[in-house]
Amino acid sequence: MKYQPPYTITSEILNLVAAISEAIGRLTVLTGRARGVRLRRINRVRTIHGSLAIEGNTLSAAQITAILEGKRVIAPPREVLEVKNALAAYDRFGTWIPESEENLLEAHRVLMSGLIDDAGMYRHGGVGVMAGRQVIHMAPPADRVPILMTDLISWLAVTDAHPLIAGSVFHYEFEFIHPFADGNGRMGRLWQSLILARWNPLLADIPVESLVFEHQAEYYQALNESTRRTDSSPFIAFMLRMILDTVIISAPQVSPQVTPQVGALLAAIQGEMSRESLQGSLGLSDRKSFHERYLKPALADGLIEMTIPDKPNSRLQKYRLTDKGCQWQEQHGG
What we know:
single chain, mainly alpha, Fic-like fold, Arc Repressor Mutant, subunit A, two-stranded antiparallel ribbon, about 60% helix, about 5% strand
């Protein structure tokens, strides 16, 4: 008999699938084909930040962005390596097939290279999931892992379940099996994202992991409740709520109306720029006029932000676009 993961399709799950499908349709219309490179990068950073933060990585989104840009970051070497590996994995994201066990092992090797000795290989010993000093889940014996993973991937290849449901089921079963010595959480989230992206490429740019991190306690509670029931429905419902909320949040807002001066500022700003650099780019010499007509209203509307907000008058102060400002710039050909 072919393996069938135990789960129940509840009315909540059906309603969530319908709501996500509708929200994705609206998002597709709003974004069109011109999904901005800058926004994709921002969301990729959020995805990596959220997924690694769940595992205890302390680097901020700004530090991850700096690593992405090749800048030096002062941080624990292991955490920097975790970020570099995650960036490398997401660079290859589009080449992997969810139903390929070979690809799954390769993805783990990329994610965990230099972090554990057996990156890209199933574990050889027992492993448990801890909550403090308490073992909350004892994974199946190591000698069962290859069989269980083959069964799970084979199920994924033939299931007619909706990808939104199949991705969540796979994620839960993967965490239950805990096939690797380390990196199971980030791999499970990565592989669910891959399943979702194969269904709709737009979902590759939706930072679901960022929202999961904000609801980390609920994430583990849903995993534990599914294990207690021997039915992954609680986890499916949780993940679908996270996906729906992320899709809704990701929908572009109507481009705000701005003055010609603020528009010129938003078009000129690239990365992080000092006041002097911005004035120079705009060919302006009057500092007071620049502050009152350009800088101040852009800050007030949340289109730009200070890099050192707690020291507004710092000589090292610079300005950068917010997400809202990036969206404006993308929509106006910036």
